[in-house]
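[#protein-structures] MJ: dropping Peptidoglycan/LPS O-acetylase OafA/YrhL here for a structure pass
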Amino acid sequence: MQVPNTSEQKANKLAFLDGFRGLACVYVVLYHFWFELSIAYSSILTQNIKSYFRFLNFGNCSVAAFIAISGYCLMLSTVRSSSDTLKNGWREFLIRRCRRILPGYYVCLLLGIVLMNGSDVLHKSLLFQNAIPVDMFSGVISHLLLIHNINQNWVFNINPPLWSVAVEWQIYFMYAFVMMPLYSRFKANSLLLSGAALSVVLFAISRLPIAFSNKFFWPHSWFVFIFALAAYAAWYNYRVAIKGMSDAARLMFVSAILAAFCLLSVLFFTRDDKWLEHHNYIVELLSGGISIGVMVLCIDAILGNKKSFLVGFLSLPFLVFLGKISYSIYLYHCFVMAVVIFLVMKYLGAGFLSVFATLSLALSLVVLLSYFSYKYVERPFMRV
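AK: finished. structure tokens for Peptidoglycan/LPS O-acetylase OafA/YrhL:
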């Protein structure tokens, strides 16, 4: 099997995955920023200006990309070895996931509880309109257990973006206890079948009358399939096309990516936001599929020692840096945006200078805060 000889070489060659994560993170941050700005500064932003930035209205596309990147990366440790099981077993896998996800998550959760109860700044933010009032019992408990995504009263409580952290956290357990055991016994096709089956079951349960009446739902159940499809793609790269894809296979992937991108673009520009929100599964499945296709082509270029614009672009140091701190960026960016908009509006009022000041100050503070969170909260646990 052709794999790099050292851990450092492996990390360098796969840096594009961090860059891809960084790019997705930039988009979801801009989505939330634009959502708040377009309403806070609606008096100076004409309809024409808003139409130019309509492409920033689809933040869940980035969440689908995050899920795809996660599924692909987590499968790498298995497919790059001679084993068909989780590296060191499911216990070690979940311990590693706990160390990676929980420290930053709980610090952010604590900060959110303090801010939501100690100040009314967040209460005035449109980003937090569904986050209040904070349910100090069931809301907090559900967030501590990372199950707040299953109830409509909890899902956006405290810090709205945290819903997707809970979704991904639960997918880890499905991966460890359903997908991988089936993969070990029945091989790669079982990843697709189990991912599809879990998605359908979760979707169906959410639509049961008893679930609906109790406000139970599992949002974006198709993310499970995106995760499984990404894991399958990693298997394809390292177990089937280890020496590089054939020209026909490569052409098929490029054509599929372009077709999905064109369809997504057509939907964005021909359908209104309400239609897209109602049919979000189409948009997110296409986004996840495009993300998976990009990773497959990048790895194919790396394995075949070919030059690739995609690999080069996604490996840009700035994007790789953003990718490394992307988890903290995702956790904290809404807090920062809400506070900055409040202060800028209070002291500068509404104007184009305010828009510029808000964007530049908020983005700078988000990156700075996220860097310190990554360095002092995330990394120490990752090294254990």
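MJ: nice. The chain is about 75% helix and 0% strand.
AK: one more thing. The chain has one domain: 16-382.
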